[in-house]
Amino acid sequence: GVRVRIQRTPDDATQRRQLYVQWLNARVGTPDILQLDVVWTPEFAAAGWILPLDRFGPEREDFFPATLEANSWQGRLFALPWFVDVGMLYWRSDLMDAPPATMEELVTLAQRGMAAEGGAARGVVWQGARYEGLVTVFVEYLGGFGGEILTEDARVAINSPEAVQALTFMRDQIAQHRIAPREVLTWHEEETRFAFQNGTAVFMRNWPYAYALLSQEGESRVAGRFGIAPMPAAPGGEPTATLGGAQLAINAHSRHPEEAYRLIAYLTAPEQMLERAEVVGQYPARRSVFADPRLAAALAAPPSEVQRIVESATPRPVSPIYTQISEILQIHLHRALVGQSEPEAALQAAAREMERVIERTRLRELARSGGM
Predict the structure, then answer these.
(1) Contact at 8 Å (CB) between 289 and 42?
(2) Where are the beta strands (DSSP E) in the chain?
């Protein structure tokens, strides 16, 4: 067998990434297996810090397609998903019969929920502070209007008409429809959860962790009175859930790559994913586990509803320069939402800055040489 030693790393993602970069730049061979955030894989792959897994012949068919897309670079697979996280819409089942399927319905149902007797003071709440969470929310509205940030050949698409529609819709929730409170522009996940949990919001965009907390009788005013659904979409768009979660990759300097892959294969096997769901409630990255009747007892949310959302998962741009792209977007999205610039002007400015980063890093040449 393989003897495993666990090496502790910081819970904070930024601190963990900094630690990994120090180790890998120093060509340190341990830890042999790295737990990566979903947006790190292409960066680490392009830097030569992690090994491609194709030589080990990993089984792929059972994994949700978005998880494999996020972990591939230049046509090769560099990590396997350990568990998935996805953005989702929480909705008040005591204020409506079904969740919205369209953006228009989102506005209408939010307004009705605010106007109803015993309704909520806020229509919809989401993560709008200037940080990565804002980008994940925007990705979902962007997909809902049929847009994207980068094309497959690394062309900037953030200034498309669809992107302008998406950002305008987010702004109008605050400024025109008045269904989102202005304070969302300073909110992260927890402020958003508290608003929904206290019964003051009709809808909330958040991650799966909130479900169990919202279900606690005596702690939550919406316990037993909410459901989950994919984010809605406009004509020409699709319901979109920003993909999150953890991946397992092999340190390129490991002296034990074969043993490392054996452990990754074990940890990402269906039985282990089911056990992880039972112990910590995290969502499996394999479709077959959702077909296992034991999963219903493991998850706080109904597995069929969870799977419908995971099927709409979309990676953020699978690019080694994603960190720079996100930093640019955070600034310009927030400027538009607070009213410092118009959505189209903000996205044009973001596109120009992204284009400069792409040219400087020669990303398109990398994409052409192996495919993104």
Answers:
(1) no
(2) 33-37, 72-73, 76-77, 80-86, 88-92, 122-125, 201-206, 226-229, 241-250, 313-314
Burial class (CB in 10 A: 0-12, 13-18, 19+), 103: buried
Sheet of 88-92, strand order: 122-125, 201-206, 88-92, 226-229
Question: Which residues, including other chains, have CB under 8 Å from residue 25's CB and lie 6 or more apart?
Answer: none
Per-run averaged pLDDT (10 residues), the chain, 372 residues = 88 90 93 96 96 96 98 96 98 97 98 94 98 98 98 93 98 98 98 98 98 96 97 97 98 97 97 96 97 96 97 96 97 98 98 96 76 48
Residue-range domains of the chain with CATH: 30-85+246-314 (3.40.190.10), 87-241 (3.40.190.10)
pTM of the model: 0.95
Judge contact between 30 and 7, C-beta under 8 A.
yes
Q: Taking a C-beta distance cutoff of 8 angstroms, is the pair 311, 290 a contact? A: no
Which DSSP string corresponds to 28-68? ---SSEEEEETTTHHHHHHTT-B--SGGG----TTB-HHHH
Tokens of 129: 């502070």
How far apart are alpha carbons 247 and 17 in whole angstroms? 13
99-157 residue pLDDT tens: 999 999 999 999 999 999 989 999 999 999 999 999 999 999 999 999 999 998 889 99
Q: How far apart are CA 135 and CA 127, in angstroms?
A: 9
Residues 6+ positions from 156 with CB-CB distance below 8 Å: 149, 150, 351, 354, 355, 358
- What is the per-residue pLDDT for 363? 84
Distances 203 to 108, 120, 297, 347 between C-alpha atoms, Å: 12, 9, 26, 26
CA angle, residues 138, 38, 164, in degrees to nearest 5: 15
